[in-house]
Fold each of these.
Amino acid sequence: MKKVVVLTGAGISAESGIKTFRDSGGLWEEHRVEDVATYDAWERNQALVLEFYNQRRKQLYECSPNAAHYALAHLEKKFDVQIITQNVDDLHEQAGSTKVLHLHGELKKARSTVDEELIYDIKGWELKKGDKCEKGSQLRPHIVWFGEAVPNIVPAAQLSSEADIYLVIGTSLNVYPAAGLLNYVPNSIPKYLVDPNGSEVYGVSKLTVIKEKAGKGVTELVKKLLK
Ligand code: OAD
């Protein structure tokens, strides 16, 4: 089976009702990154950081996958599909995709603040002050904050280098190291970018830009690839 590697960002979940970060009305217009998404923010005000992610999690429970998530799951019928997502939602998994690598963590999980190997499913939408790991430390959201290492970038780069076809969906390619994954994709393979505001990416060869929302653009692209 040919390997299709898919890099997704917030735009693929937009039609499910989850806000993107940098579009107008996006999350980073309402909240300052340095107040809610850095380790310093956590040290300064744990309650505020917990509340920010609790609200995101609560909202996620009200959302469902959209046509784009389902189309990518369907692509597994004919291809070895590996998804690399910057998203912390689990809509790819809910839609049925079986290989999903999360670069920036997972909203429905918490982790220990003394042992990063200790990761737990959060029951319900709320992570509270006083919720502790088995070693007694406060649990934090299992999210990669700005300034923190991105451990899954290593397998993601390897997967990107092994692709036969590469898809990029709904990301502004503003955040590194995720955006740098394109440098690992072989020059010779076909690449597709689906984003209503998409454009050529400097230095990326054989790229077809599909200026559509993910629901329509990905569904049509998947149909074409399955033909
Ligand atoms: P951005 O908000 O930076 O970009 C969203 C992209 O989705 C833009 O290029 C939009 O044009 C596009 N878009 C909007 N609606 C769409 C739709 N219906 N279909 C397809 N595309 C659509 O989000 P990301 O690139 O994912 O990290 O941001 C990367 C990271 O920055 C996030 O993972 C998050 C954020 O800070 C952390 O919090 C660590």
Note: Residues 73 and 96 are 5 Å apart (CA to CA).
Amino acid sequence: MPLASQPKSIAARAPARVNLLGEHTDYTGGLVLPMAIPFHTTARISAIGGEQNVFRSAQFDGEYAEPAGSSAERSKMWSDYPVGVLRQLQQRGIVPAAFLLELSGDVPLGAGLSSSASVEVASCLAMLARSGKTLTANELALLCQRAENDYVGSPCGIMDQFAITAAQAGHALLISTRDLQFEHVAMNAGGLQEAGIVICNSHVKHSIAAGAYGERRKEVEAGQAILRTRFAGLRDLGEATLEQLQACESALTRESYKRCRHIITENARVKQARDAMMAGDAQALGKLMVQAHASQRDDFECSCAEIDFLVDTAVGLRGCLGARMTGGGFGGCTVNLVERGEFAKFCETLKDAYGARFGVAAETYVCEAVDGALADQEKGF
Ligand code: GLA
């Protein structure tokens, strides 16, 4: 085909994310501290003959096609994520002309590194480009979260979509999930210069669409409802104190009480982590990560034997300042703060120990914080 008559195609790209601290705080107005990591989804969109929208993925079998303008229900295929985004765009009167959307990327799947949100954000940017429209970071992230909540049926919070959209290279992103106020926190102040982030993938599959995430969320929201009734003016758990929780103890189930205790202590840890990062205190940040893991394991009860083993082993290794499970939980990855000079030895020893204990090959990824999707597009990735 002569070049001039080839269909125009536009590519958009979105990273994955790892959460440093602030787990399960993002659906009750709390604080989170993720960063974007150098794994990406690319969404390439082009015109296609006819009136169909076609969705393809290099990572999943089976293409999905529907008439442009369709409002069909979910198909329970991988394509529900980009189609859910399209439905949200349609609801806002943004209707791209018939297209072929081709997804590819290297984000580890089901590992708690937000492969779904990465697909949503990249797809959304591609479909917006085809429509000649733009959205702000807040609008984009909220739209993608709604796609996942309403169309895919997964009750996630806003952290992943927002981090993937608005992160900045070299920084973690402190997000107040109540109002989406945010602050970029440098990853290289003082002692942090000598330390970096190592992710370890346990290969225990994690799916937040599965029931446990939703169960935890209900327990947290039940506790929040009781605190709100007791303390007039309390907006959410994001501003609740341990004293307030204790005052309501007898009205909460044991589970609800423990889940809420995790949320309240976790919000406090995120604030302390931000201060530690600003002060360049890598030791303090590492300690907060270890405390966070204990709270996830004991109060939120969302860890598992493999992850606990990885965390316990990591903190005993030379150069490791802190370790914890990251993401929705029940498997997936750990995030470790490690002295740079020890990266290679740390990764090797951790993988060896895990292999010897579980007979499974863990993977490690040394990650610098990269730009979120919006900054990435602006720079013309
Ligand atoms: C998943 C969800 C997020 C958040 C985390 C837990 O990644 O998508 O919204 O709730 O779990 O912190």
Note: Residues 1-6 have pLDDT under 50 and may be disordered.
